[in-house]
Amino acid sequence: xxxxxxxxxxxxxxxxxxxxxxxxxxxxxxxxxxxxxxxxxxxxxxxxxxxxxxxxxxxxxxxxxxxxxxxxxxxxxxxxxxxxxxxxxxxxxxxxxxxxxxxxxxxxxxxxxxxxxxxxxxxxxxxxxxxxxxxxxxxxxxxxxxxxxxxxxxxxxxxxxxxxxxxxxxxxxxxxxxxxxxxxxxxxxxxxxxxxxxxxxxxxxxxxxxxxxxxxxxxxxxxxxxxxxxxxxxxxxxxxxxxxxxxxxxxxxxxxxxxxxxxxxxxxxxxxxxxxxxxxxxxxxxxxxxxxxxxxxxxxxxxxxxxxxxxxxxxxxxxxxxxxxxxxxxxxxxxxxxxxxxxxxxxxxxxxxxxxxxxxxxxxxxxxxxxxxxxxxxxxxxxxxxxxxxxxxx
Amino acid sequence: xxxxxxxxxxxxxxxxxxxxxxxxxxxxxxxxxxxxxxxxxxxxxxxxxxxxxxxxxxxxxxxxxxxxxxxxxxxxxxxxxxxxxxxxxxxxxxxxxxxxxxxxxxxxxxxxxxxxxxxxxxxxxxxxxxxxxxxxxxxxxxxxxxxxxxxxxxxxxxxxxxxxxxxxxxxxxxxxxxxxxxxxxxxxxxxxxxxxxxxxxxxxxxxxxxxxxxxxxxxxxxxxxxxxxxxxxxxxxxxxxxxxxxxxxxxxxxxxxxxxxxxxxxxxxxxxxxxxxxxxxxxxxxxxxxxxxxxxxxxxxxxxxxxxxxxxxxxxxxxxxxxxxxxxxxxxxxx
Lengths: 394, 335
Description:
Distance between the termini of chain B: 54 Å
Number of strands of chain A: 16
Oligomer: heterodimer
Order of helices and strands of chain B: HHHHEHEHHHHHHHH
Structural class of chain B: mainly alpha
Strand content of chain A: 15-25%
Largest sheet of chain A: 7 strands, mixed
Number of helices of chain A: 14
Largest sheet of chain B: 2 strands, antiparallel
Radius of gyration of chain B: 21 Å
Number of strands of chain B: 2
Helix content of chain B: over 70%
Shape of chain B: globular
Strand order of the largest sheet of chain A: 2-1-3-4-5-14-13
């Protein structure tokens, strides 16, 4: 029975290729849950790449690309696994953009994608744990690992002449992973970490945490938390008691409410957010605006690139079979060859069809390192006169 | 100088924040303990009553601010507080009439009333969110600091800062006044005495002609006033977020139980015990020790417990107290 099914699937696939049938790409991200505000721009980013490819009519002799959205919920690993299972077994997708958060991504990858030989490219899962996962070459991410952010933050802090810091992190995979990687990198380069204290989000009072951090001391306080959550509580307490005057803000703390609620009080503090610049990014933002969404939305560009990488790899491998095209992803992302930016997907498809190599840059200057994750460019920011200002790109 | 620095460090990071937090918890715990003593059930809706009262007060504050009415250096919310209390009391009395009264007349077991209050809690939870949303709201205006950290340093020349926010001072003063008024009311007035009589022995109180409806009404009004004031003070000092108020129920109940449920004095003591234990047990004494014993150079933080365990601290105290004094430190009641 199983063999019969497999055979008929193979026949269908073969028939599909011959008839220039549809290519289905799943988008498994958290449309509901803690990051639900990010999801719409991410999905639209990925779908913009699909539409671009469909409209060009150049993918494998004119295949159309169809998007299959699914809710990964970000926090519920079981729900994410079910979503991905459905995509693979009943929707029969040819590649998946997702998941959104690290925990659910690890779960759906291990339980479904790897056993089924499905390619997953996550635009936003940043846990260092995904670097070492045994993915059989099926998993990639267009977002940098938090280990990288830890290194970038270390360099920044040392360049500010700061040698000892206190660290507090929000008690979850993101906060813990980022704090661990930062502490390791900082100590390696000769810095001193006076204390590493967790804080829980949504608690009534943070006096205890602030007291402990203040007593441990340090020239600056690194807050690996959320700006709408406990991170703000710690920052407020530290400012009011005069415990620290310089703060370091990783990506979770850099947001509109930092300016609004703290403004000039945090002048002189600094931090970084994953970001990109340059031709591809500008083109992507303009195209996104025309399509009616915000191209600067967090991880929107990364989503576009994730979808584009899958489709270009298919073209390079002349196959929609994930087990075949997975080997082409790194090649396309890292070149050598002509640089392909966001909006140039048609040109990329053409070159690949002609057997010429390309170097996909996309919206976020894609360059994959290690087992297939973005090397990560970061935007260093500083607070001047109560405003978040860009200092430089790293 | 070093001894002064050590004292200031303890004041700034332990005494001042813990006293403020303790006062906020004490007011909340007083409300819980009054309901428990007189109406004989644990009111789990206390946290959300606080949230509702605060939400109303915030909306009145916004109204006053848009009319250009302020309260000088004090937060405008204090002016809006009476309106918040009035509306909260109306809601509580309405809830009592529609929900609790039935269970009281059928003399339902306390555990049933507790479950009913959980239902009321979720309802109020929803009402508050519909009214004002789920976002964090800051509504403190007026002067922010009584003593700011940088001013204190330049005045005294000490290396350690001391900051007292005006909201912290207001919290302690208002809480003190309210507690004094409550005790005076319970001890001296006729209504207060009838409430205590009703709490002590319901049947005997009824026989001696005390009107139970009146006692119940007054209890809800006091509980509403306490909850709204506690909520507004907490919100002024930190910020308003419906979810944090919901979370406040845990430390508030810990405070009320440690002190002895049904005993107002115990509620106040319990509030401060919980607050101080959370802050002091997890405090890292490294800095203070550094001032007191300059020659003692240590890498250790001298921290008894990591701050991760701060909630465990208050619950450990709760368990120990319940093991050795099941009715709480100040001898409350157990129904």
